[in-house]
Amino acid sequence: MSSPAIQTTPAAHGEDALTALVALVREDLDACNRQILERMQSPVALIPQLAAHLIAAGGKRLRPLLTLAAARMCGYRGDRHVRLAACVEFIHTATLLHDDVVDESDLRRGRASANAVFGNQASVLVGDFLFARSFELMVEDGSLEVLRILCSASATIAEGEVLQLVIQNDTSSTEAQYLDVIEGKTAALFAAATRVGAVVAGRPVSEAEALDSYGRNLGVAFQLVDDALDYSAEQEKLGKTVGDDFREGKITLPVLLAFSRGDEEEKAFWRRVLEDRQQEEADLPHALALMQKHRAFADTIARARDYGDRAIAALAGFPDNAEKRALIDVVEFCIDRAR
Amino acid sequence: MSSPAIQTTPAAHGEDALTALVALVREDLDACNRQILERMQSPVALIPQLAAHLIAAGGKRLRPLLTLAAARMCGYRGDRHVRLAACVEFIHTATLLHDDVVDESDLRRGRASANAVFGNQASVLVGDFLFARSFELMVEDGSLEVLRILCSASATIAEGEVLQLVIQNDTSSTEAQYLDVIEGKTAALFAAATRVGAVVAGRPVSEAEALDSYGRNLGVAFQLVDDALDYSAEQEKLGKTVGDDFREGKITLPVLLAFSRGDEEEKAFWRRVLEDRQQEEADLPHALALMQKHRAFADTIARARDYGDRAIAALAGFPDNAEKRALIDVVEFCIDRAR
Q1: What is the ipTM score, two decimals?
Q2: Per-residue pLDDT tens over the stretch B166-184
Q3: Domain of A86?
């Protein structure tokens, strides 16, 4: 099918980077997946059914992979990081379930979303369950420092999501507000996921902060690419629909760039489609054309690459090892999705 | 306005019991309310706005009152219980926000529900925020034992809510399932709220378990009365609408009793209105008449009184003091709401 979306060249290097990371922590990841399956169980059968729809459907397990690799890079030899990686995935899954309710999404990971199959009510409540269960797992781990990191990240995620709701449909939103949104809704969990790697390994605060910085910058880069991809033909290969954000009136960087660089007529267009939500069939192709004209897509990716470079720089103080190289390559994976 | 609901005599003794409890822990409660207001703040203004709509609107603060009184009854002289009481109220508020989304409620505490004013999306996300914030407060408190109790209660609440969703509209649900639902969605937090009172006071496990039993039985009694009140004229005085559960097809004990004691024609009626959700105007009065005929309302209250007695019995081992007497009287308050 011919798509009106921005054409990009297929990813190559990126997928390999993720494959290499998975291979490196294969045993840990298998153990983590077992923990996830075991601990999402409940006497209330609908809970594992709904959770399995999303969790067992796959997903990249990117966040738990980051926890596993960060801990190993720090020289950790125990197995606490496996349970904490499962916590991170539970928090992520809970937010996905609630996001899909909030966004009224029908699709997730290329199949019907949980709310589309099981209803909004069950999605809200099973999200709550997974959230609570992740805290139970942390309590079992027993580190107050880890609890502090992941509880704080959870509150920040919710703040980012609420802010996103507040600035939605508002073309006068600023880039600073947009960055606050993605630092909250996405980067906070990436930062926490990598930071706990240093904490379980008992490394000094400076290393925990370096890994926090790596995760936070990677998370921002990841979300920037995600927001660009929403306007790219690559999106369809990821099992998503081009223009979802556009239809919801979500204010993302590609939109903010095209808006700020547009003339009055173009600004009026953006206000009509995103603020008034008056959209016709020809509007998405027109929006894509404006983005190309103003290099909004390319500059969003360039910005992502910038954050990716900062993520890599944050790892400078760590000794060279296979996990460090894998974490550097993951940055490429996150950005190359848009190529 | 003349109501078709079951007429009951007004509460008297009950309100006094709550007033006495409030007077007894007045300073602690004021400190707790300050904590609540302070810790629901966020740079994202919609969060305190929405939270204030529900929290500042009042509510009885029953659960935090239980934590405060239980700690004092156990001889606790510090102030950790104040923060933990705020945690309990945050968890309760988060579940109320999500409940109202799940139930599509328009009313809460006699005014428009948060979801009706701010939308479902904001209610889901601010609920998540309050939930995460409550865990942050627990981490600040620093007791893994308290964290274990409240995390476990939170997971159990979600399980109870999901089970309620599963058996909703199903008249073949059993009393055992119904009890599982209310032990999860209501009694688990009551039990945790009172148990942490013993834990902060450093009392032995036997006393923590006794307070757990007090809270759990009180919580079941409380919910039984709530479910009876849904069919009582008293409901309107509480700022709620008679028959909400009926319209949603919620399976509660009054319904299960009337159904199981009904003849085939009555069973067909219950199936039509609750399973098929085919309801006409005359159906609620008819349902109320069937409940009176089969003593479903009175027997639900009797059952609540039974659980209330067990709650009081659980306090037997504690030395007599003002807080213990107040906790005993609170049982009366919870049950007398239905008189």
Answers
A1: 0.92
A2: 998 888 899 999 999 999 9
A3: 13-106+115-336
